[in-house]
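Entry: DUF2627 domain-containing protein
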Amino acid sequence: MQRMIALIILLIPGFIAALGIKWMRDTLFGILHPPIPFLWLQFLCGFIFFVLGLGFIGGFIFHRDRKRNKVQPRFQKK
């Protein structure tokens, strides 16, 4: 059950990061999505979504590895 919850917790930021990549790619091809009025704003929102989603997933994995003592000594809790 805990693994299923962890998977769901990681899927949501994964979808947000994927949406960010899609918006950045569409900006490069000149495709504007309706809720956003400018291409540069669409790229900026996509970049923010990508960084937030990837950061959450990275932080989740880092926290899990730190709990299991699988990180380098400089990253371990003091």
